Amino acid sequence: MTGTLTWVFAVLFVLVVIAWYLTYTAARLDRLHVRLVGTVAALDAQLVRRAEASIELANSGLVDGATALILAGAAAQSLEAPDEDGVIREAIESDLTEALALAFSPELVEHLREAAGPLGQDYLDGLSSACLRVQLARRFHNDAVTDVRRVRRQLAVRVFHLAGHTPMPVTVEFDDAVPPGLDQ
Amino acid sequence: MRIGIVCPYSFDVPGGVQFHVRDLAEYFVGDGHHVSVLAPADSETLLPDYVVSAGRATPVRYNGSVARLNFGPVTASKVSRWLDHGEFDVLHLHEPVTPSVSFLALTAANGPIVATFHTSMIRSRTLQTAYPIARPSLEKIAGRIAVSEDARRTVTTHLGGDAVVIPNGVYVDRFARAPKRPEWVGTPERPTVAFLGRMSEPRKGLPVLAAALPEVLRQLPGLRVLVAGPGDVEHVTAGMPPGVAAACEFLGPVSDEDKAALLASADVYVAPNTGGESFGIILIEAMSAGSCVLASDLAAFSRVLDGGRAGQLFRNTDRDDLARTLLDLVRDPVRRAVLAEAGRQRARQFDWSVVAARIRAVYETVIEGQSLALAQPTTRWSRFLRGGLGR
């Protein structure tokens, strides 16, 4: 009789431990998913800001017509990019980075600093800060993705479907280099 | 912005991380932010008013060196109270993987967390064991900063993912304003060369400089070598080639003002360090003061000197190369002036105004991410899980 009772308690104990572990892991995963939702939203917001800053500069009349066209074109693409398709968005953002690198030649930076006065400097500061923040947001997002993927590879997470229906996140890859002319 | 900064190492003793935290906090205070720094400190130690003491620190052997840290249940509750009272918009932890207030704050905190990693040790058994244990807590960090490429590689190796490199800062103007001292300024017959650092520590490179000096003194007998830093003079000179000790003037440990004046006055500042440097803040201080820098070609030094454009590099531990480059520089005032000017320009990139602006960009990115995440709709299940985590 006591033997059976011991067994019952032992099994109960093991079940409690398993339940605790699963809840703990689920909570850990949930926290990571919250972080991920935040980094996605932050990256999106920074990309929009960068595109808007580019369009503003293109419309300012401080840059020559051809450069303005290149910038405005690439930035408009970025603002219209569909959120759903990651691959297309990545390509479009790389294009905007390239357009910015092309536009911000040392001559243009010089011109904005010297000829356009404080307004030119404002545009330069705004864009260089936007580019830096895109870099940060993408780095932090990819860090979150790496952390989520590591936890989701665990056996318990896969067997008990602790991640629910949340799709497996993938890192965001595009060229986010700050244009050489804007790097302090 | 309300910023909470946690420093794991005691404010009783000087150290790189402590100086970094102090300078950063002072910068943000000057910028009009509310800053509170939590750090271990003795009750007798005089603390700036933005520092909250986490209690007395105990010397602990951790990861190959003795650090003054504190931990335990009493400290843990102190950390929680500090967090509750602070109501910080962002929490900035330094060296989170140490048995210290930094790690305690990481486990206790919710909300936007930024962490700066200072250590650069890729093969360390301590870190290999510590990182997996700390991993669930480390996952709370939304923004990781490394102070150097080497520190970043440590994060990548042990933690996975990546970190943003934001270098240490220097208050460039404090060094740029330093006046020259006539007794340390060189003349064509008696040029001066400065060395700074612990004399008895071989990796600071004094032995390499001593080995190169006989050749330099043969061609330039008037050369004066100004050696500043703690250490036993007799012990150090005993190992030097004859004639070298006579050319050296030992200044002992110097104050910050003397250090800046020395760097501003000497013709050439030599940094013959042979390894173990992950950053090289002293090179930036020297460049800020307007010295012409001659340094060994360690990866960290080469990066700071922009591959040799902002200062001269010589082959690490190669005394003949050091002697040759040193002679060239001492004999060529035009080149010295060119390098010093390039160094002055370069040092601007490491000024706290630039460095702190980048750190602020990290804060803002992380805060924005958190607030956007909280704006998302929640389910009962997710609320249950988050409730299980504390708040």
Outline the structure in words.
The complex is a heterodimer of chains A (184) and B (391). With 184 residues, chain A is mainly alpha-helical. Chain A has one domain: de novo design (two linked rop proteins) (Up-down Bundle), CATH 1.20.1440. Chain A is built from 6 helices and no strands. Chain A has helices spanning 2-59, 65-80, 86-103, 106-114, 117-152, 155-159. In chain A, helix 1 runs antiparallel to helix 2, helix 1 (2-59) packs antiparallel against helix 5 (117-152) and helix 2 packs antiparallel against helix 3. The longest helix of chain A has 58 residues, at 2-59. Chain A is rod-shaped, with a radius of gyration of 25 Å. The mean pLDDT of chain A is 87. With 391 residues, chain B is α/β, with parallel strands linked by helices. Chain B has 2 domains: 2-169 and 352-387, Glycogen Phosphorylase B (Rossmann fold, 3-Layer(aba) Sandwich), CATH 3.40.50.2000; 174-348, Rossmann fold (3-Layer(aba) Sandwich), CATH 3.40.50. Helix content of chain B is 45%, strand content 17%. Chain B has helices at residues 16-30, 73-86, 101-108, 125-138, 149-159, 172-176, 206-219, 233-238, 244-247, 256-265, 281-289, 299-304, 319-331, 333-348, 352-374, 380-387; strands spanning 2-6, 34-39, 51-53, 58-62, 65-69, 90-94, 113-117, 143-146, 164-165, 192-196, 224-228, 248-252, 268-271, 292-296, 312-314. In chain B, strand 1 (2-6), helix 1 (16-30) and strand 2 (34-39) form a beta-alpha-beta unit. Chain B is elongated. Chains A and B meet through helix 1 and helix 5 of A and helix 15 and helix 16 of B.
Provide the β-strand percentage band of chain B.
Answer: 15-25%
What is the helix/strand order of chain A? HHHHHH
Second CATH tier, the architecture of the largest domain in chain B = 3-Layer(aba) Sandwich
pLDDT < 50 stretches of chain B: none
Share of helix of chain B, binned: 40-55%
Count of individual helical segments of chain A: 6
Distance between the termini of chain A: 79 Å
